[in-house]
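PROTOCOL LOG
Step 1. Enter all chains and additional molecules of the complex.
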Amino acid sequence: MSNDARTQIRTFITTKFPDVTFSDEEDIFALGFVNSLFAMELVMFIEKAFGTRIPNEELHLGNFRSVALMADLVARQTSAAVG
Amino acid sequence: MTQTDVVASVKPKRGRIKCVVWDLDNTLWDGTLLEDSAVRVRPEVVEEIKRLDALGVLHSVASRNDHDAAMARLKVEGLDEYFLYPQINWNPKSQSVERIAKELNIGLDAIAFVDDQPFELEEVAHALPAVKTVDTARIATELASEEFQPRFVTDESRVRRDLYRAAVVRDQAELDYTGTNEAFLSTLDMTFTISRAKREDLQRAEELTVRTNQLNSTGRTYSYDELDALRTSPDHLLLVASLTDKYGGYGKIGLALVERGQPAWHLRMMLMSCRVMARGVGTVLLNHVMRLAKADGARLRADFVETGRNRVMYVTYAFAGFSEISRDDNRLVLESGLDQIQPPPAYLKVNVE
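Step 2. Run joint prediction.
Step 3. Record the structure below.
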């Protein structure tokens, strides 16, 4: 699940920024290519792709800094929904 | 239907119509273009179009006709430039009206549709009940009603059509552009200007508080007089933002009201017009206020009211480092310690007056 989420998130980002290379753990905001608009697109993408609504307390930059952190967020949301 | 139902469903709201969509044959002109290429344009209709245009009401066309022939006829009459996203095709008119609403990014309840054929009026009314339908025979009275009288007529109303026409060119350029969104934005040469609100900005500022839903932190509306008092209050900063690019202006598109204080400044309201939603400029005004508060040695708090339509704004605050410090039902206060403030995006020049 987590690996699948990582792949989907990475694909979404590299479609938008084909020239940038980064690892799953790397801070994509620190790399400087993520603007506020893209941050919003990330939220929308994750909610749509994984059929979840991210609660307010999870909506902070810390959860979106890297592919790995976003996949963790997805895992928390989907397990919360099942449990 | 009971009397109260009627009142609730057709309650006229002043200035709710932002765009009038016109039929052509036997509405804008006498006769049928396909049968008679010399159709006579009705001067009383043209007069109405020009009158409403000057008030900032937009116009478009939904006509079943040959597209090129109809546009050529409109051009000869000097009328083509009045119509945004004209839909001249053989599709149902409800589809055309829907498309226009989508292109203009306005609600269906902000559209009036004018036609002489009962069939067309009923087709649109049935498919899109929110649209106001007007029989061509009744335009003199209908278009004089208060639904067609904007609550605000500002400097910007008079040029609204030009703003949208620039947007049409810009949108086409975006469609034609093959690179990433970021790369496209950097081709626009955007300048974002932030200044203290002047008296002549207040009508537009009031209008923004009424018209802006999605990128609005509180949904609260402010009257001209309230804004004028706040503008001159020593404890407050009322900031307006505008955006221009190589295709022209977007007009005044942002507003922020800040109350200065210690230990925290308080952002009472911030909004950004949906015109600039796709321009990645949502955080620029917020970051500016954050820098001002930080320079004053203060923290920054922000009022936020969940309206059901403004989640984008919540994300904007959250990603700028704000977190909830109190909540009363749907009314929140957010706060940032201002440890981290994002620089403006590289594709944008920020100009502070």
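Step 4. Note key features.
Chain A has a mean pLDDT of 85.
Chain A has three helices and no strands.
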